[in-house]
Write a structure and sequence with these properties.
Two copies of one chain form a homodimer. In chain A, about 45% of the residues lie in helices and about 15% in strands. Chain A is an alpha+beta fold. Chains A and B meet through helix 8 and helix 12 of A and helix 8 and helix 12 of B.
């Protein structure tokens, strides 16, 4: 079965993916940070049973402590789990669908962290799927819920809808032309936040950003999704215009073609350089300079991350071996 | 008719070309620097008549002042004439064969500067051709010659045989590993000199060097050629070994493949960057990494020089237009 991220998505030239995440807690248990091992196991079992009660084999349950470190990090690289979820894995379960579009972390910060991912811009569709699964669970479990302040969560910033919706955006032209910092200030006033999606630090690797809603209290899910959707569409239009202008400059266009030339001929390619070059190539593909599809590039961005690369090759690799393996795959995929 | 430089040459992986140059002066005229216009015209006419007397249409006579600046510089880029010969062109003639292997400058530093070029290492063959033409001229003209000190030339460093033999060498690995400076000191003790073949300055553009004999007095032509030939073969062996060692290093091999990727995908390519990249690609081709032939690369090195590029495209080009035209031709020739 195809993974969700190789599907063609709406506004796919700029929007890589959409994610809707709901945080839920069980009324009769303390938050995970306060749970003893027995309590954690109980929470894991209760939620797993609720999800798989109807004999549905839609979901696969993964006991996090059964995973190798590489497998766990690869899940984080694919944004299926949070980096924190890979750190301490005892008493934690990951539940996923085969296409990896739905993933549920048990005993992360909250008892239940349910997320749905879709390719491109697809906020309402992602929410609808999350909502359906949430309704199933709601029918079988007793959520910690307060009529006045909504879903109770460990972190007060999630109180209310406890919904975090986000879109992953590729903004190479707005980054290059220095317009991104202004944009960050603007979206902040509109109740949103934007930050680099890959790696820590200030510079967003590959010019890939995550734009998400900040407000969960005093707003409905639909209103939050509408707001994020509208602002995303505006940014998409700005980025497209900036890309067209940038590529009208022969020196910038040259850099894009060179990036492709290096990616399809290098014998060694580390993850940092890859992210910089694939970002240029993705912009070129988005504006019709190359034959390669945006979905193929999205897949590469996922698969070329260090742990996922090792998972694909089926063995542990030293840094230099990873760089050689990455270069080899890139040459095969990006034939000019 | 094919130009001499696209022929396959002996030791061609390292030796681009061989050049033998003879300087001759007419007994009854002062050296060119002391000649008035009338005298220069007389020298031009006498030598031209001597060469074309037998009705041979082997030679094409070019009045240097009829050339555009671009045409003249292109001849210099192809090493058919000296850069000085392009500066003041009044009263100067260039005589060449169609394949450009023989070129004769009239009224350069000496009355006659006869040079023969061959692909690869071919010193004796080049000398034999030069000697044959020299004999024809000798039969019809009276050379300035002294029994004791040989051919008389304006510059005393040419007295004696007045022969300068040289080979153009591509030494990227000896350059990269820092062994070239030691080599320069060694060949100097053996009566030879080595210097960058392209451009001024210390760094040899494209790691292309000219190795030539320094001694013309008290040595026969054959002895000078034998000496240069033997030392060239030693350097060739050293360079080959250094190339093999260098390319065993994955990071260095990576640079070679990247150079090819950039050359066959860039949209803008200036002459300096081209020389650096083509040098790496030439080394890769010499060691069997690429399908492109050494002769094709040699041709590119000649044709991608600024004035020659404009001559090929048939129009004057601004720097940015040249860089775009150069990149376009490279993409066509270096298909991966």
């Amino acid at each position: 079965m195809n993974k969700w991220y190789i599907e063609k998505g709406d506004q796919g030239d700029v929007v890589l993916s959409t994610r809707v995440r709901l945080a839920r807690n069980l009324d009769e248990f303390p938050f995970p940070a306060k749970l003893d091992p027995k309590g954690r196991n109980a929470v894991n079992k209760i939620v797993k049973d609720a999800l798989t009660a109807d004999g549905a084999d839609t979901f696969k349950c993964i006991d996090m402590k059964e995973l190798t470190q590489t497998q766990a990090v690869s899940f984080a690289e694919r944004h299926l789990i949070s980096p924190e979820f890979t750190q301490s894995r005892e008493g934690r379960t990951l539940i996923i669908t085969e296409d990896e579009s739905v993933s549920i972390m048990l005993c992360e910060e909250d008892h239940i962290r349910l997320q749905v991912m879709k390719s491109g811009l697809s906020l309402h569709e992602a929410y609808d799927i999350a909502n359906k699964i949430d309704n199933i669970l709601d029918g079988k479990l007793r959520y910690a819920f307060d009529e006045r302040i909504g879903y109770l969560t460990q972190c007060p910033t999630n109180l209310g809808t406890a919904m975090r919706a986000s879109v992953m955006l590729h903004l190479p032209a707005l980054t290059k032309t220095g317009k991104l910092s202004g944009l960050a200030a603007t979206v902040s006033k509109l109740g949103l936040t934007i930050r680099g999606a890959y790696g820590e630090g200030t510079a967003a690797r590959g010019a890939i950003y995550q734009l998400s809603n900040q407000i969960t209290l005093g707003i409905t899910e639909q209103a939050a999704l509408d707001n994020l959707n509208a602002i995303t569409l505006q940014i998409v239009a700005q980025e497209r215009a900036a890309q067209r202008e940038l590529l009208n400059n022969p020196a910038e266009e040259d850099q894009v073609y060179r990036a492709m030339g290096i990616l399809n001929s290098a014998r060694m390619m580390d993850a940092d350089e890859f992210m910089g070059l694939i970002s240029l190539v993705r912009m070129g593909a988005a504006r019709g300079l190359f034959n390669v599809t945006i979905e193929r590039i999205n897949e590469l961005i996922v698969n070329m991350q260090p742990a996922t690369l090792m998972e694909m090759s089926g063995r542990n690799l030293e840094a230099a071996q990873r760089d050689a393996e990455r270069a080899k795959i890139l040459r095969e995929i990006l034939v000019s």
